């Protein structure tokens, strides 16, 4: 195991401990979280803050290994079998505990039980799995899919089935351009919907699944696609926003048309003819939105967000990447279906192409357009794709603002002075004001939700919130999930 790989800093899949905690629960949460995620390593004998190699006591190191393996075996359900090895670096020996992704999810702490003892890994920390995530882990462990599960309380008639079949064929024909291909579009029947998992047969009765409810707009708390245009590169200032409901395939089309209305149109000379072209590859734009609808977690109580900024198009879908799926694999065409029934329906309707081809095609089309490679981000339970636009600078040079520039904390921002305690002035930067405006609109927002609103990373939000708390501009009342923010400034923020 290479030293630079082992000591690259704490992340989603690496955690360091100076020594083995006396209370095993202090690291057993991480073991469970690794097994419920994409695996990881616990390294004992390394300072988690400085990455200094402290090493383990060589006289008792094998007894320590036994105690670690016994604790993992006794504390976790189902059983987790770690791979424990020793590694000597700079004449000091550390213990490396490798936890592989588990096939029998969810894994949890026996002492706490399933609901209170299931943990997942988010941003380098082990967190208690929320209810929707626990349900998804249970389904994944049983090789079941939410979209193929029966939709409780929903009934379907033969007429309803025929109407959906007719509408799906119309959509497929609308998305087919050549006459020869149109004649190849087959009819959809009840049996086809059963084979996809859009319908299910139980005790001789045909019942609708969650996929059927989503495709017909009848899902309890039917999700929507939220679209918006923002001024600048953050979510501080809305220019326009829309929300599209109804069947999810109609939402995809409406969101796609919304983006086309808002992006720029240019021209290209093809011989002696002028050809109008959009600034972004439209097929890739549609693919981004369609993939979000096909692959999102419908258990998570959130909505797909399509946001257009001065420098990028951003599509965010609820639900972290599935087990054994990584961004590197996605770029190579690897795909693991979260919603196979919806994916089958979308593929038939020509809304998405063959499974696994979407991301490679988006990367290729952006390259052919002369755009930077789109950014794929797996963060805090959601997945996001950023497609960067071209911006014009002096002398007509096309440049694109990078993610590093976007996320860099600006030190030259304009400031606004406001009052906190009587007689005490505080200077606020543009980013300070952006966070305060979001909080003033909804004081109950969590750090993750603030990050989503602003288009920032959660770490960046934490930095500014901590800074504002230390300067007595805001304070948090209650817990991180159920509390609210209090603004301590005396005067209201100026309306922009």
TrEMBL record:
Signal peptide: none
SUPFAM superfamilies: Winged helix' DNA-binding domain
Domain Schlafen AlbA-2: 10-128
Domain of life, source organism: Bacteria
InterPro entries: RecG_C_sf, Schlafen_AlbA_2_dom, Schlafen_AlbA_2_dom_sf, WH-like_DNA-bd_sf, WH_DNA-bd_sf
Bilayer-spanning residue ranges: none
Protein name in UniProt: DNA binding domain-containing protein
Biological source species: Candidatus Lachnoclostridium stercoravium
């Amino acid at each position: 195991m290479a030293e630079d790989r082992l000591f690259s800093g704490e992340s989603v899949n690496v955690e360091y401990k100076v020594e083995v905690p006396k209370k095993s629960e202090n690291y057993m949460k991480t073991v469970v979280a690794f097994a419920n995620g994409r695996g990881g390593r616990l390294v004992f004998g390394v300072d988690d803050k400085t990455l200094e190699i402290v090493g383990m006591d060589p006289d008792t190191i094998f007894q320590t290994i036994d105690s670690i393996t016994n604790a993992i075996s006794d504390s976790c359900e189902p059983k987790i079998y770690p791979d424990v090895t020793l590694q000597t670096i700079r004449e000091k020996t550390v213990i490396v505990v490798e936890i592989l992704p588990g096939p029998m999810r969810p894994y949890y702490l026996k002492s706490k039980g399933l609901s209170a003892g299931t943990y997942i890994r988010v941003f380098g920390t082990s967190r208690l799995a929320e209810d929707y995530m626990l349900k998804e882990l249970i389904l994944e462990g049983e090789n079941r899919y939410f979209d193929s599960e029966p939709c409780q309380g929903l009934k379907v008639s033969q007429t309803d089935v025929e109407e959906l079949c007719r509408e799906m064929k119309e959509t497929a024909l609308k998305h087919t351009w050549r006459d020869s291909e149109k004649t190849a579009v087959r009819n959809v029947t009840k049996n086809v919907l059963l084979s996809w998992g859009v319908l299910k047969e139980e005790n001789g009765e045909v019942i609708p699944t969650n996929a059927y409810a989503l495709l017909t707009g009848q899902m309890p708390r039917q999700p929507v696609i939220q679209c918006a245009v923002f001024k600048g590169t953050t979510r501080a200032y809305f220019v326009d926003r829309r929300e599209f409901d109804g069947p999810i395939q109609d939402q995809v089309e409406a969101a796609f048309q919304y983006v086309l209305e808002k992006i720029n149109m240019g021209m290209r000379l093809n011989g002696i003819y002028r050809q109008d072209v959009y600034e972004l590859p439209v097929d890739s734009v549609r693919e981004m939105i369609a993939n979000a609808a096909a692959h999102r977690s419908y258990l998570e109580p959130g909505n797909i967000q399509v946001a257009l900024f001065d420098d990028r198009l951003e599509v965010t879908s609820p639900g972290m990447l599935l087990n054994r799926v990584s961004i590197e694999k996605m770029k190579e065409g690897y795909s693991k279906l979260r919603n196979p029934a919806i994916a089958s329906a979308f593929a038939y309707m020509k809304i998405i192409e063959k499974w696994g081809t979407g991301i490679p095609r988006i990367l290729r089309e952006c390259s052919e357009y002369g755009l930077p490679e789109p950014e794929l981000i797996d963060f805090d339970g959601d997945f996001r794709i950023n497609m960067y636009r071209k911006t014009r600078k002096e002398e007509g040079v096309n440049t694109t603002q990078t993610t590093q520039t976007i996320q860099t904390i600006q030190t030259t921002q304009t400031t606004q002075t406001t009052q906190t305690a009587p007689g005490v002035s505080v200077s606020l930067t543009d980013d300070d004001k952006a966070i305060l405006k979001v909080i003033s609109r909804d004081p109950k927002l969590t750090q993750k939700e603030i990050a989503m609103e602003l288009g920032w990373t959660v770490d960046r939000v934490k930095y500014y919130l901590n800074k504002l708390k230390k300067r007595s501009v805001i304070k948090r009342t209650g817990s991180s999930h159920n509390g609210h923010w209090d603004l301590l400034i005396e005067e209201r923020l100026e309306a922009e």
